[in-house]
TrEMBL record:
<keyword id="KW-0547">Nucleotide-binding</keyword>
<keyword id="KW-0067">ATP-binding</keyword>
<comment type="similarity">
    <text>Belongs to the ABC transporter superfamily.</text>
</comment>
<dbReference type="InterPro" id="IPR003593">
    <property type="entry name" value="AAA+_ATPase"/>
</dbReference>
<feature type="domain" description="ABC transporter">
    <location>
        <begin position="2"/>
        <end position="227"/>
    </location>
</feature>
<keyword id="KW-0813">Transport</keyword>
<dbReference type="Pfam" id="PF00005">
    <property type="entry name" value="ABC_tran"/>
</dbReference>
<protein>
    <submittedName>
        <fullName>ABC transporter ATP-binding protein</fullName>
    </submittedName>
</protein>
<dbReference type="InterPro" id="IPR017871">
    <property type="entry name" value="ABC_transporter-like_CS"/>
</dbReference>
<dbReference type="GO" id="GO:0005524">
    <property type="term" value="F:ATP binding"/>
</dbReference>
<dbReference type="InterPro" id="IPR027417">
    <property type="entry name" value="P-loop_NTPase"/>
</dbReference>
<dbReference type="InterPro" id="IPR003439">
    <property type="entry name" value="ABC_transporter-like_ATP-bd"/>
</dbReference>
Length: 308
């Protein structure tokens, strides 16, 4: 469990994290989202005592990180996968960390197996690909068998197999009752991995809710309706409270009415319908809507400028 209370970080005149309150619960994967510079890494660094809060506090499993007698057994973190001595082998890197924290060498072999590093365990990490470094970083995070895991962009640089592997690992760790707090800019991946979502924008909490609520709350879902009799159907739908929009002669987007009701109205009027597709919002659309005011450079603005 991670609990932040009025957590604040200022760098000179810049407020990177602005008095945030949140709780990251065990047993679920919590996704941490936000535009570049929103304060995600700073928040994670403060949880791990790598940055001092300018105000407020944050605890892991009930205590600030520094007050735990054996913090690596409480919380494991992947913050910067490349921060490893390049001359060491992966196994020696893990053995050195294990020795410092009185973790038996047998656990090193367990995490090597868990993270699929067996074939490169005796290779110097200086030659590792980003994907291998990420696996090694995850192995370090898991070394103390911690109840809480903090993973900053764990799928960064991974190939599609690696991305799926991280997703399954995160879900398995949460199913074991651990707290899993994970940041990523890959929305489709996050949608499949996280149960709960925390969104930061300019250092403040923009949303803190279950994934289903975030996606559902992004705006009303619509139904795509294709019929050769648009002109007959649209007034009937509008009379029943729908809002209808659409640019194609045989296709409209209907909000305010569910698909079964649209089907009943069409059937009642003898209108043939060729397609009736409920369209749910994606996490990406929800995220874009929620962070619209917190981003300096948006894709649509760039597109407008490119078309000038
Ligand atoms: N050591 C530092 N000194 C000064 N400013 C900093 C420092 N670290 C971060 N910042 C600033 O604080 C803000 C938050 O940065 P942070 O790296 O936490 O954002 P982020 O959400 O992790 O972004 P990204 O998605 O790009 O990783 C940014 O404006 C950044 O420039």
């Amino acid at each position: 469990m991670i609990q932040a209370r009025s957590l604040t970080k200022r760098y000179g005149a810049k407020t990177a994290v602005d008095g945030v309150d949140f709780t990251v619960r065990p047993g679920v994967v919590t996704g941490f989202l936000g535009p570049n510079g929103a304060g995600k890494s700073t928040t994670m660094r403060m949880i791990m005592n790598l940055d001092r809060p300018s105000g407020g506090s944050v605890t892991v499993n009930g205590k600030p990180y520094a007050q735990h007698r054996a913090p690596v057994r409480q919380v494991g973190a992947l913050l910067d996968a490349k921060a490893v001595h390049p001359g060491r082998t992966a196994r020696n890197h893990l053995l050195a960390i294990a020795a410092t924290h009185r973790i038996p060498p047998s656990r090193v072999d367990e995490v090597i197996e868990l993270t699929g590093l067996e074939s490169v365990a005796r290779t110097r990490v200086g030659g590792f690909s980003l994907g291998m470094s990420q696996r090694l970083g995850l192995a370090v995070a898991l070394l103390g068998d911690p109840a809480t895991l903090i993973l900053d962009e764990p799928v960064n640089g991974l190939d599609p197999d690696g991305v799926v592997w991280v997703r399954l690992l995160a879900r398995q760790l949460a199913a074991e009752g651990r707290t899993v707090f994970l940041s990523s800019h890959l929305m489709s991946e996050m949608a499949q991995t996280a149960d709960h979502v925390l969104i930061l924008g300019r250092g403040r909490i923009v949303a803190d809710a279950p994934m289903s609520e975030i996606v559902a709350g992004a705006g009303s879902a619509s139904v795509q309706v294709r019929t050769p009799h648009i002109a007959r159907l649209v007034p009937l739908l509008e009379a029943d409270g729908a809002t209808v929009s659409g640019a194609e002669p045989d296709l409209v987007s209907v909000t305010g009415l569910a698909a079964p009701r649209i089907a009943e109205i069409a059937a009642g009027a003898g209108v043939v319908v060729h397609e009736l597709t409920p369209v749910t919002r994606s996490l990406e659309e929800a995220y874009m809507a929620l962070t619209r005011d917190d981003v300096e450079y948006r894709a649509e603005r760039i597109a407008v400028e490119a078309n000038r």
